[in-house]
Amino acid sequence: MAPAGAKKGILERLESGEVVVGDGGFLITLEKRGYVKAGLWTPEVVVEHPDAVGQLHMEFLRAGANVMQTFTFSASEEKLESKWKDVNAAACDLAREVADKGDALVAGGICQTAIYKQDADEARVKRLFRLQVEVFARKNVDFLIAEYFEHAEEAVWAVEVLKESGKPVAATMCIGPEGDKNDVTPGECAVKLVKAGASIVGVNCRFGPGISLKTMKLMKEGLQAAGLKAHLMVQSLGFHTPDCGKGGFVDLPEYPFGLEPRTATRWDIQKYAREAYNLGVRYIGGCCGFEPYHIRAIAEELAPERGFWPPASDKHGIWGSGLNMHTKPWIRARARREYWENLLPASGRPFCPSLSKPDS
Amino acid sequence: MAPAGAKKGILERLESGEVVVGDGGFLITLEKRGYVKAGLWTPEVVVEHPDAVGQLHMEFLRAGANVMQTFTFSASEEKLESKWKDVNAAACDLAREVADKGDALVAGGICQTAIYKQDADEARVKRLFRLQVEVFARKNVDFLIAEYFEHAEEAVWAVEVLKESGKPVAATMCIGPEGDKNDVTPGECAVKLVKAGASIVGVNCRFGPGISLKTMKLMKEGLQAAGLKAHLMVQSLGFHTPDCGKGGFVDLPEYPFGLEPRTATRWDIQKYAREAYNLGVRYIGGCCGFEPYHIRAIAEELAPERGFWPPASDKHGIWGSGLNMHTKPWIRARARREYWENLLPASGRPFCPSLSKPDS
Amino acid sequence: MAPAGAKKGILERLESGEVVVGDGGFLITLEKRGYVKAGLWTPEVVVEHPDAVGQLHMEFLRAGANVMQTFTFSASEEKLESKWKDVNAAACDLAREVADKGDALVAGGICQTAIYKQDADEARVKRLFRLQVEVFARKNVDFLIAEYFEHAEEAVWAVEVLKESGKPVAATMCIGPEGDKNDVTPGECAVKLVKAGASIVGVNCRFGPGISLKTMKLMKEGLQAAGLKAHLMVQSLGFHTPDCGKGGFVDLPEYPFGLEPRTATRWDIQKYAREAYNLGVRYIGGCCGFEPYHIRAIAEELAPERGFWPPASDKHGIWGSGLNMHTKPWIRARARREYWENLLPASGRPFCPSLSKPDS
Amino acid sequence: MAPAGAKKGILERLESGEVVVGDGGFLITLEKRGYVKAGLWTPEVVVEHPDAVGQLHMEFLRAGANVMQTFTFSASEEKLESKWKDVNAAACDLAREVADKGDALVAGGICQTAIYKQDADEARVKRLFRLQVEVFARKNVDFLIAEYFEHAEEAVWAVEVLKESGKPVAATMCIGPEGDKNDVTPGECAVKLVKAGASIVGVNCRFGPGISLKTMKLMKEGLQAAGLKAHLMVQSLGFHTPDCGKGGFVDLPEYPFGLEPRTATRWDIQKYAREAYNLGVRYIGGCCGFEPYHIRAIAEELAPERGFWPPASDKHGIWGSGLNMHTKPWIRARARREYWENLLPASGRPFCPSLSKPDS
Questions:
Q1: Where Zn(2+) is bound, by residue (chains A, B, C, D) (predicted)?
Q2: Which of A10, B313, C121, D35 is the S-S candidate for B309 at Cβ 3.0 to 4.6 Å?
């Protein structure tokens, strides 16, 4: 594989029209593997069980991801106290180690703060961000992501701090089509982020594939209306949430321990990847609920455009073709695209509804 | 931790009334991680990516499993040709390495053959089994499991071969309440297996938690009626299959790439563990679809009986208690047992049915 | 139309191989029209609003029914006190008046008593039946039906009393495949009823089309095993109840004011009619939930066998053919059998489950 | 009862703040009774089987309706040719005969034409309307309704013609929140209708209770914004249609022969009546799918406001109270408001989805 130094940067890739495949969700995936605790959702596993984190990075790399995002979600003074700096440094090393085994970049990520909700003190919030960025700078990550922001204002502050590093900045908000907490529309959010300096904008988390793409469409239209240009990025949930309200999946009664029936199939994700591509989004990944095979589904759907298959496709027959040698003819009959594209999968739960009402 | 030599054997544990927690499914879990190919479902990952297999063993151990089953499913001359012996040996080493990090035993497993279906030639089938057992004997596994048999006759042959090793033998069939392919009832199957020398009998795979326990009840009744004694073992799917027919989940239209909406929650598995325990089953684990957190759910539900919590419970608040500090009061309100026990999780798929008709 | 005197009797029809189409449900249909009170379910409307009852008879006649059952359900001393005799006499007159407008017979019906449940005193129960039969004899109904019995013993008493009249006797129980309240199997029930003198046996009410036919199959097998012959009759609910327990639909949480989503379509009923016919049932009608168009569906499905269409088919295009002139092409496309046979109709209720757990 | 002459007119009632309860659907109800043919949906039953129509009027009157709408839907030269005049005259007589038995008014109704869709020739369309109004004038109906219009323009023409009669005019369109076929919003439609002379405006048919009320809210807001005043009227479907598109229920795959699972319960309609009332709507009735017991549900829900119960409530225990003497305690437990208000009724159809995709 090519030496890290030889890799094209994130903007180079996007500007040349390449599709960048993001990685998937660490928190919920590692919670199910027994390493992250639901509730606080902090990434201390990075120092406690680095192998488990490295293994997941490796799986996303094999699945075709071009980005290894440092597992530093909520890893700040605020939540991890004195531990935070070691966690962040270790997360950078883990991401880099795996990224160097393939064609992937390392992205350092910061997210919204509790301070902001308390008093929205710009100086204090930015100080918290700056401390985190220092580690990323020292570890020389390839670019930076401000993600999971419910307020455009705080996301703008984050972008401003990240820009100070001189590295490319992506910014994604965890909002739906109704906009941010202060009713700033997706289009307006996108405009603010680009004006603040983000080269890549979009959404991550909180909403499933269908709704996330609706929000992306609004962001795109907002940018066009304002005459601005930016690369588009989407990292949706791996769960279907047609019934969620403005707050997204956390308000659904199934969050976070009963979401299984909502899990997207690989075919749902191929559809999502295609629709995102058709919308003009070129940085396509996932967030909570996105397992490695979901990322592979993005890479497989867009293999014609990218010109290659991800390593993990060695263990995957396209559109179920691996079933074509099954002894039962009715299972062999499933080894084709039409079958899986049209399947309406049953829940096996006849006593359960198909939609829920969000709490609030 | 105690040295391996000091560990109690499988029969010692069961005879003293201990609950033995089995491990979960390797094939489907590693398929989703990008290492196993659906269709043939062979375990060559054991030599190709041993770290990925070791990591999964480790997760099951942390989740509370007392058994590390060698990942040797279908690993015979028949399917893997010359490679099979290396795969089996490596699988034994991987299982042992992790087992020695905790209180777990290593179990070598064999399963049904294609030869049997073709001509049911006892000598040929037994020869295939014997080759596999030689490796297990050389690697000194702690006990042996004959699993995933659709025909009682072939399962009996397997038990006969395994008994030759002098090690304790468990035998599980992948049948439902309607019995095996030749209409041998579950009760009759159990009787045959015990008479052939199995100390532990039960079911694995093909059927979800509810149906698997129905079959276990019939096995138990069959043994009682015959005046026989044996330890009971259940390793169900991690998918709900109330709608499957005699052939189990492979005949459902969702198999194997659209099963997501059927995935059991951790609460479903706690219920399964409790019901299995109440039925007198003391070896309780999982098969396809059982992820590490499902195994942890067994270990947590039966923690009062076992007297301890599994290591991975450090990252899990009991009955959702980790949510009790959430900023949203309606999410804090989910931090209690009644909430999760009574949740009827929505699929988020209003255009899909809740049950399917099996193909055949 | 032919004079009443010229009509073939019920046994003549069945013995010559004719299909007899029964009528539908009066209680629930007239409850929805505002004339019957749920709870006691008594037929005083017969004297209070005879036009409403006559109209419903007329609708069933037009739909193709060959039997006008007197609306005398629960019309005994027990429930209606002194009023009962007038109600019964009026019900006979109403049924006869409509029957004489077409090719229909009048059947007088009696059903299970509260006395039986209290102390099962044969003399008292039979006295109650005898009083009712006196009215039917005086009004010269064409045949008699003992229906809606949960206990074979009481049904046998009813048949014995009805036989005293010298008229043909049909007997239907409201049981499912699990048998009567004392665990008498459907096969045994059928045998007892035939031995007591019933010429026609079967089931009515409490269970939907699918389950009712399962019970009929068991009755048929019971009679065959006993070497007995009888005509078979089925009058199922017009509601789907795959989830009901031994007690039938009354135990479902939706009974009686939330059953709407379970209502059978006309196509469901055509399937039921065909399956009943194929099973050898020749008296095919409905009970609660069967509206006139459901009876028409029976008559239309079996029109080839009967050789004629019911009058109300003048207002019904076969298999939706009336849609073939619609201005919207996608609605015209529904004017064909395949469309309606394969439709999986949505409930429009995504927050509701598809099955319920029966209360008890 | 009071002589017809003494009855308060429709505007008098609404202006004094009274709730006016409309009647329900004739087409689908009489189709199920065997008198109307789906497809053309014409009302020739009025002359062919007047008793059947009179009976249905009577049921709506007993249920509490204050309006007997003449069953003249589509009864114009266009569809019924020479027959139309007799049908319309007979329909007026039938409605009057029943209206005079209670406190109900007679309303003559006209609806959209096929001519309009072909060439929107105002003169021809108005001529068709005028011919119909002549009959209504001769028969001296109490007021007139223009209903089931998809285009605001044609509805305005209808109102203009109806106004010529000097009688009060109501106008309802069969549109949803997205507006009419030319994208005229509900608010704009309402404004146009009022400006054309309608005293009462609203929606009827095509959409279920929930969506119809959303449209009403938009109409109300449109009128308020324009500083106009009018009485509001809603006559929704008796079917749930959350999944329909702009065309309403006719585009749903279940239309018209598989709508059963969507049928509203009486409790759904009580909720609808209360919400309509709270929104300020005072003329509340139903359209297709509204059976007499649905109208009774409106009258019962608003009995406190109206000060009396409808006659058919003699046969209805409020909130299921008629079940309080049932022998089974779990059925007695259903005799209360909380039970029925919170019931989530199952469809009994686990192989069906809960929502459909509209055709088009």
A1: 205, 287-288
A2: B313
Neighbours of chain B (3+ CB pairs under 8 A): A, C, D
Tokens of D143: 């007021």
Average predicted confidence (pLDDT) for chain D:
96
Is residue D360 in a domain?
Answer: no
- Pairwise CB contact (< 8 Å): A349 & B291: no
Residues whose CB is less than 8 angstroms from the CB of residue C105 and which lie 6 or more positions away in sequence, other chains included: C7, C9, C10, C66, C67, C68, C99, C142, C143
Contacts A342 to D, Cβ<8 Å = none
Q: Kindly list the distances between the CA atom of residue A335 and the CA atoms of A326, A332, A339, B356, in Å, as whole numbers in the listed order.
A: 9, 6, 7, 19
Asked if the C-beta of A337 comes within 8 angstroms of chain B's C-beta atoms, the answer is: no
For chain B, 360 residues long, the average pLDDT of each consecutive 10-residue run is 69 98 98 96 96 98 98 82 89 98 97 92 95 95 98 98 97 98 97 98 98 98 98 98 97 98 98 98 98 98 97 96 92 96 97 96
| Residue B228 in domain | yes
> Subunits touching D (CB < 8 Å, at least 3 pairs)?
A, B, C
For D294, name the nearest residue in chain C, comparing CA atoms only: C32
Supply the DSSP string of C103-120, one letter for each residue.
Answer: T-EEEEEEE--HHHHHH-
Length of chain C: 360
Contact D355 A353 (CB under 8 A): no
What residue ranges of chain A have pLDDT lower than 50? Answer: 1-4
Interchain CB distance below 8 Å, A267 and B257 = yes
The rounded distance, in Å, linking the Cα atoms of A310 and A24 is: 15
DSSP 8-class letter at D203: E
**CB-CB under 8 Å, D267 with C262:** no
Cβ contacts (< 8 Å) between A208 and chain B: which residues?
A: 348
Name the amino acid, one letter, at D230: A
Contact C333, D248 (CB under 8 A): no
Would you state the structure tokens that stand for residue A192, as one six-digit string? 């603010």
Question: Which DSSP letter does residue C339 get?
Answer: H
pLDDT confidence bin for D2, thresholds 50/70/90: very low
Rounded CA-CA distance B158/B171 in Å is 8
Asked if C94 and C53 touch (Cβ cutoff 8 Å), the reply is yes
Per the structure block, which two tokens stand in for A262? 């909502």
pLDDT at B82: 82
D148 Cα to chain B: minimum distance (Å): 29
Residue D79: band (very low, low, confident or very high) from pLDDT cuts 50, 70, 90: confident
Does residue D243 lie within any of the structural domains?
yes
Pairs from C181-188 (Cβ < 8 Å, separation ≥ 24): C181/C150, C181/C151, C182/C151, C182/C152, C182/C153, C184/C152, C185/C218, C185/C222, C186/C215, C186/C216, C186/C218, C186/C219, C186/C222, C187/C218, C187/C219, C187/C221, C187/C222, C187/C223, C187/C225, C187/C226, C188/C152, C188/C222
Q: Domain total for chain D?
A: 1
Q: Report H helices in B164-248.
A: 186-196, 209-225
Cβ of residue B355 closer than 8 Å to a chain D Cβ: yes
CATH number of B261's domain: 3.20.20.330
Contact across the interface for C34 and D208, Cβ inside 8 Å: no
Place of tokens 């938009």: D218
From residue A294, give the alpha-carbon distance in Å to each of A99, A311, D25.
19, 14, 50
- Sheet hosting strand A231-236, strand order edge to edge: A20-21, A283-286, A231-236, A200-204, A169-173, A143-149, A105-111, A67-69
The CA–CA distances, whole Å, from A266 to A212, A263, A297, B353, C128 equal 17, 10, 6, 19, 67
d(CA B80, CA B211): 32
Tokens 């039997």 belong to residue = C67
Helix axes B152-163, B122-138, angle to 10 degrees: 40
Q: Which of D350, D353, D322 is nearest to D335 (CA)?
A: D322
The verdict on residue C107 lying in a domain is yes
Return the bridge partners of B144, or none: B108, B169
